[in-house]
């Protein structure tokens, strides 16, 4: 395993902004709950709980000894003669592999808005996925005391902003929120996990809950009989896009290609 971050967690390693939580129910969203023997403490788990769960998975499956953290895969080369890949990294590693699985995610690279002047702005700026607690003070549960005398501008009103705004609004001297495109917002209804319910869970529970979550309501020809609870998003989708671990077809080299050729895909390993 080659991972740019300093630990397991992916999205939840990088995103530690105040208020960060999953917005798909944690009993469905967190992977391998039964295997690890863990029941999330909240219906929508805080990011830190998810990150710690990812670390627990790493310990449970003894993955820490096999991973190169703080290492970026920079190039993949397929060699027809050897029928294998070479994975190049920014630490000058050359790793030979018969199979390569790309799971670099879709939301793991911070994207700054292309606002003219952003590069010359003199104030302190950062992206929510690289939250600067040295500057703001506090932690993921809030208490951003460093902003008490600051005028803060937040750009965007997506799912992340909705989680951050209550903290910034409370702790900053003044908060300006810039909204280009309004998003629809529903009631989260977060609540602690009921210990009685947790104790009653039986084997296969996560699979059953996921199947239920992914179930597509049967289409009906009569519009008037459609259930008001029919979700308005495709089954299994999130308010944020989920990642695919499949490399794009154009980037995967086939062993059936002409022999003795090598092809490299620099930069193909990042989204
Ligand atoms: C704040 C936030 C909240 C979210 N909440 C939800 C939710 O509630 N429900 C939901 O379904 N989805 C949610 N998502 C989407 C989330 O991205 C996915 O659910 C999931 O985490 C994707 O997992 P992944 O392993 O595919 O990618 P990631 O978790 O993004 O992991 C990809 C990893 O690849 C590493 N990487 C990338 N390129 C390289 C490279 N070249 N070399 C080495 N390492 C590399 C990155 O450092 C990263 O650690 C959320 C996303 C964000 C940002």
Please tell me about this protein's structure:
A four-stranded antiparallel beta sheet has the order 3-2-1-6, with no helix packed on it. A two-stranded parallel sheet has the order 4-5. It is built from eight helices and six strands. A hairpin with a 4-residue loop joins strand 2 and strand 3. The chain is α+β, with helices and mostly antiparallel strands. Mean pLDDT is 85; it is low at 223-239 and 241-260. The longest helix is centred in the N-terminal third of the chain and has 14 residues, at 47-60.
Task: Give a nutshell description of this structure.
The chain has about 270 residues and is of the alpha+beta class.
Describe the secondary structure blueprint for this structure:
Elements: H1 11-14, H2 26-29, H3 33-36, H4 47-60, E1 73-79, E2 84-89, E3 94-97, H5 133-136, E4 151-155, H6 159-171, E5 174-178, H7 195-199, H8 205-214, E6 262-264
Parallel strand pairs: 4-5
Antiparallel strand pairs: 1-2, 1-6, 2-3
This protein binds flavin-adenine dinucleotide.
Residues 2-5, 10-11, 13, 15, 20, 22-24, 29, 72-73, 103-105, 107-108, 160, 238, 240, 242-243, 269-270 line the site of flavin-adenine dinucleotide.
Fill in the keyword field for this structure.
271 residues, binds flavin-adenine dinucleotide, alpha+beta, four-stranded antiparallel beta sheet, FAD/NAD(P)-binding domain
Describe the largest sheet: 4 strands, antiparallel
Percent strand: 5-15%
Q: Please give the CATH architecture of the domain at 11-108 and 246-266.
A: 3-Layer(bba) Sandwich
What is the overall number of helices? 8
Mean pLDDT: 85
Helix content range: 10-25%
Could you give the count of β-strands? 6
- CATH class of the domain at 11-108 and 246-266 reads Alpha Beta
Bound molecules: flavin-adenine dinucleotide
| CATH-derived topology of the domain at 11-108 and 246-266 | FAD/NAD(P)-binding domain
Give the helix/strand class.
alpha+beta
Low-confidence stretches: 223-239, 241-260
Principal-axes shape call? globular
Task: Write the H/E string, N to C.
Answer: HHHHEEEHEHEHHE
Rg from alpha-carbon coordinates: 22 Å
The CATH superfamily of the domain at 11-108 and 246-266 turns out to be FAD/NAD(P)-binding domain
What is the straight-line distance between the termini? 17 Å
Strand order of the largest sheet: 3-2-1-6
């Amino acid at each position: 395993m080659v991972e740019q971050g300093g630990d397991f967690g992916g999205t939840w390693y990088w995103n530690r902004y105040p208020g960060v939580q999953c917005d798909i129910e944690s009993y469905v969203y967190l992977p391998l709950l039964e295997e690890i023997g863990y029941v999330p403490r909240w219906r929508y788990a805080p990011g830190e709980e998810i990150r710690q769960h990812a670390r627990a998975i790493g310990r449970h499956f003894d993955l820490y000894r096999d991973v190169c953290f703080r290492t970026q895969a920079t190039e993949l080369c397929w060699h027809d003669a050897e029928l294998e890949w070479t994975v190049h990294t920014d630490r000058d590693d050359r790793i030979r592999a018969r199979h390569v699985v790309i799971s670099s995610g879709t939301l793991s690279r911070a994207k700054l808005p292309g606002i003219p002047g952003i590069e010359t702005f003199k104030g302190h700026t950062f992206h929510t996925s690289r939250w600067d607690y040295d500057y703001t003070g506090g932690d993921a549960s809030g208490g951003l005391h460093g902003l008490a005398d600051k005028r803060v501008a937040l750009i965007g009103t997506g799912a992340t902003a909705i989680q951050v705004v209550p903290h910034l609004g409370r702790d900053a001297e003044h908060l300006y929120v810039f909204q280009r495109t309004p998003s629809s917002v529903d009631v989260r209804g977060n609540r602690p996990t009921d210990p009685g319910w947790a104790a009653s869970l039986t084997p296969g529970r996560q699979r059953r809950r996921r199947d239920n979550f992914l179930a597509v309501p049967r289409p009906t020809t009569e519009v008037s009989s459609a259930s008001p609870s029919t979700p308005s998003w495709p089954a299994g989708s999130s308010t944020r896009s989920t990642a695919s671990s499949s490399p794009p077809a154009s980037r995967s080299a086939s062993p059936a290609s002409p022999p003795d050729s090598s092809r490299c895909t620099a930069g193909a390993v990042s989204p």
